[in-house]
Amino acid sequence: MAKISRKHRSTGRRSPLATVALLAIGLLTTGGAYALATTTATAESQAAAANEQLIEEGKKLFAANCASCHGLNLEGSKEGPALVGVGALAVDFQVGTGRMPMAFQGPQAARKAPQFTQDQIDAMAAYVASSGPGPALPDERFLEATGDAAKGAELFRINCAMCHNVAGAGGALTEGKWAPQLKGLDARYIYGAMVTGPQAMPVFNDLNISPEEKRDIITYLDYVSENPSVGGFDLGSLGPVSEGLFIWIFGLGGLVAITVWLTARSN
């Protein structure tokens, strides 16, 4: 019995290697947690520094190219509106489409080739966005033409076709303004226009038209741009004005020419 008891006590003892293993596991766990926390803090610090640098670069670009109209502190002037709180999306749309800086004062800023690179536009957008909360750039998934084109067509007819034409060909508005054509336009600018409401366009925020519905509209416009008119030559998709003019000039003109030819032949 004594031998059995001693054997039981000897096998129940903790091995010295177990203590070493526990210490090693504890050190590895503590070290790993510290390294992870340090890496995260470093990454956040680097991201914040990069963002500050981007904002500073945007501030310099804004002061050199935009402040004469919009003010050094985005407060606006008689020549241009205040930009506090308009968000990065408004800057991306206006500068990315070349509407800003304006070539000349007029009823509406015309679209032209952009004067800045995308990196410079991003910097100015970051500076303006730092002034206050505003619409940010959308998630890329809402810019892909993968939505419901049929639903997008219905939404476009209800909300947009009265100005832009059902085919997105654009049209004239009052007081010298116009609705631009939308065929072949970059999806980010279509989305930006709906959210920010530039020029005479109303604002369609997410309560009016959800991001998913905006994607449906983008899908419809992409379909219209990529597919030819099923009715043949679309005459610019401008509707009865261009069609009537075509019939008046070529249709009636052709009838007159045939009448003259028949009369001359009979004589």
TrEMBL record:
Catalytic reaction annotation: a quinol + 2 Fe(III)-[cytochrome c](out) = a quinone + 2 Fe(II)-[cytochrome c](out) + 2 H(+)(out)
Keywords recorded for this protein, A-Z: Cell membrane, Electron transport, Heme, Iron, Membrane, Metal-binding, Repeat, Respiratory chain, Signal, Translocase, Transmembrane, Transmembrane helix, Transport
The name this protein goes by in its record: Cytochrome bc1 complex cytochrome c subunit
GO molecular function (one): iron ion binding
Enzyme Commission no: 7.1.1.8
Binding site for heme c 2: C160, C163, H164
PTM description: Binds 2 heme c groups covalently per subunit.
Subunit structure: The cytochrome bc1 complex is composed of a cytochrome b (QcrB), the Rieske iron-sulfur protein (QcrA) and a diheme cytochrome c (QcrC) subunit.
PROSITE patterns: CYTC
Membrane-traversing stretches: 245-264
Residues binding heme c 1, per UniProt: C66, C69, H70
Keyword Transport: yes
InterPro entries noted in UniProt: bc1_cytC-su, Cyt_c-like_dom, Cyt_c-like_dom_sf, Cytochrome_c_Oxidase_Subunit
Domain Cytochrome c: 53-132, 147-225
Signal peptide: 1-35
Bilayer topology: Multi-pass membrane protein
EC top class, as a word: translocase
A Pfam family reported for this protein in Swiss-Prot or TrEMBL: Cytochrom_C
One GO cellular component term noted in the UniProt record for this chain: plasma membrane
Location in or out of the cell: Cell membrane
Biological source species: Ruicaihuangia caeni
Coarse class of the protein's main subcellular location: membrane
